[in-house]
Amino acid sequence: MKSVSPPLRAAAAGLVCVVIAIAAALAVDSRLDRNWALRGLTLLLALCCAAVLATGKDRKARPLIGFVGLLMFGLVFPITTTTWATPPEIDFALSVADDAEAAANRQAGSAVTVEDVRAAAEARGGAVGSLKTENSPEIRGADAYPLIVRSAKDQGRPWACLTFQHGFTAKIRAC
User: Fold this and answer.
1) Whole-number pLDDT of residue 160
2) Integer Cα distance of 68 and 98 in angstroms
3) Is residue 24 within 8 Å of residue 79, measured between CB atoms?
4) Rounded to a whole number, what is the largest CA-CA distance in the chain?
5) Contact (Cβ atoms closer than 8 angstroms) between residue 17 and residue 47
6) CA-to-CA distance for 59 and 136, rounded, in angstroms?
7) Per-residue pLDDT tens digits for 133-170
8) So what's the pLDDT on residue 1?
9) What is residue 72's predicted lDDT score, i.e. its pLDDT?
10) Spans of the chain below 50 pLDDT
11) How many contiguous H segments (helices) and E segments (strands) does the chain have?
12) Residues 82, 28 contacting (CB under 8 angstroms)
């Protein structure tokens, strides 16, 4: 039985890494900051490991290093960055953004207002703006975009920053 040549195996592995990277990037909600720089860097490292597999006939350690690198940078990192993309505070902010957008559409508004976001957050049991404490008596992120959205009224961190660009396009990121 004839085996596949190392360059062909490396090309196939690189193609699989590209497919996984694209699928993982598209699996994240488009309103989130997708960390394109981190995703691009891991894809580049995976392709470098595939190149190590293509040229690594001299030593026995090279194919092992290339395989482990492909496994980590081509499979594990893209999947974990996708599954960790929506912690609970981000899920809450996504729900608030959906509710605020629906409220603005019902009112036939031309854009989602801060009051729409505040009402949506309070309806879900959360709040808008940072929590007032002794260390920081000034409430930030409650009057203008980007808004700080908290999933509980009495909870400080973690929270998410929510902004609406061009009226109805929500952008959410950790802040």
Assistant:
1) 84
2) 41
3) yes
4) 74
5) yes
6) 59
7) 778 778 777 787 888 888 888 887 778 888 888 778 88
8) 44
9) 92
10) 1
11) 6, 4
12) yes
